[in-house]
Give the backbone structure.
Amino acid sequence: MVTMNDGHKPIGVLAIQGDFAMHAKMLERMSAPYTLVKHASELADVGGLIMPGGESTTMLKFFSNEGMGDAIKEFVTAGKPVFGTCAGAILLAKEVLNPSQERLGLLDITIERNAYGRQVDSSVRLGECPELSPRPLEMVFIRAPIIRRVGEGVRVLGRCAGLPVLVEQHNILAATFHPELTEDETVHRYFRKKLSQ
Ligand code: GLN
């Protein structure tokens, strides 16, 4: 669904695998114009892109089809805002551990997949994003990665249990948790603002 109620292009939600429908639901609740992106050519019609959580290895397979990976690289290199959650953050990273795998290499972080161990498949914790919200945010982690290194140009916007969980490098925003799975619109609102900057 596309509803254009402001001067901007809609937010694209990458819809090849994973929990894209929950991001769409969140944007709908915020009355933010959005559209699902399934083909590389559709990137021309969106003002920003959300890369959802899911399985990064599965998404990588789709990236070589139709040149989706290259198209996203071009999109982000052109300065368009992108927001990766969990698997999306893994795909954006410069370095991936456990094990190493293909990635877009756009965000200067080292990220370790499935880093909380098999026992902790998923958890809900409270974390802090002081620049975004004065109160703690509920954060849902599902087979989540851990950001092990943050490059010089990367700002840590959110932490949970001392670890960076929300980071930003210019037009790139990445979270190791799933803000789309809570009622809290804080992180999506922050991303939406990046489209008009
Ligand atoms: N474990 C997944 C991966 O490595 C990420 C999990 C998620 O997106 N919730 O791609």
In short: Residues 93 and 107 are 5 Å apart (CA to CA). Residues 53-56, 86-87, 90, 113-114, 142-143 surround glutamine (CB under 6 Å). Residues 1-7 have pLDDT under 50 and may be disordered.
